[in-house]
Amino acid sequence: MLEITLFLLISLLYIVLVVVVTLWAKRRNLLKNKELKPEEYLWKLKQISKKSEHELFRIAAEEKGWSDHWVEKHFRRYLEDQSLPNYVKEFIEDGKDYISAYRSNRFNLFDKKLLAFYSIFALLTIGGSFIFCLYIFPRIFPYGDLNIRSISKLARPHIFRAISLADIRDYEKACSELKRACELGECEYYDLKKKDGICQ
After folding, report:
1. Which of 135, 136, 186, 140 lies closest to 160, judged by CA?
2. What is the total count of domains within the chain?
């Protein structure tokens, strides 16, 4: 039962890891191939330059030779219907390569280094759990004083049941289970308990 649960858990974590990597790859390709609108470029430029949209309008107007009067008028229209004037569009077009190439330093779940870290962390967690469940845990909490690998699979349930019954001091039923295990070829424990005078 433990092996099945462990296998299902590892499978689930592996599927989650594959889905995250696939989503990251798709998102990366979509972002690379997606053509942004001028409004989106303006928003990105705002994030990069840490300037307000109004300041960017002023800079674009100054560079393209438009007066402050027109900037105020166009900016009011931009606030109403999000339409950009031609000089802002030209300004954005001139800096499009710079805006596209810029990479933000802020936290991004799909960042390569971060994704690699989480992938390695997940694999170590899965591997560590696997090693702990199969090798460390059985050594810390063994099933009584028994060497489980040396017991036949048919006799194991009877021996484990005998241990459980002995823990609650029901020795008669425990001896009965050990006797059944002996009938299946595992007499060592039954003989030992008979010698100790617990079983008859």
Report:
1. 186
2. 3
- At residue 108, what is the residue type? N
Tokens of 11: 């499978």
Q: What angle do CA 49, 52, 58 make, to 5 degrees?
A: 95
For 72-125, the pLDDT digits (tens) are: 888 888 888 888 888 888 888 887 777 777 655 554 555 677 777 777 887 777
Are residues 128 and 96 part of one domain?
no
Domain that holds residue 5: 1-34+108-141
Structure tokens at 143: 């099933």
Give the separation between CA 68 and CA 73, rounded to whole angstroms.
9
Rounded Cα distance, 180 and 59, in Å: 91
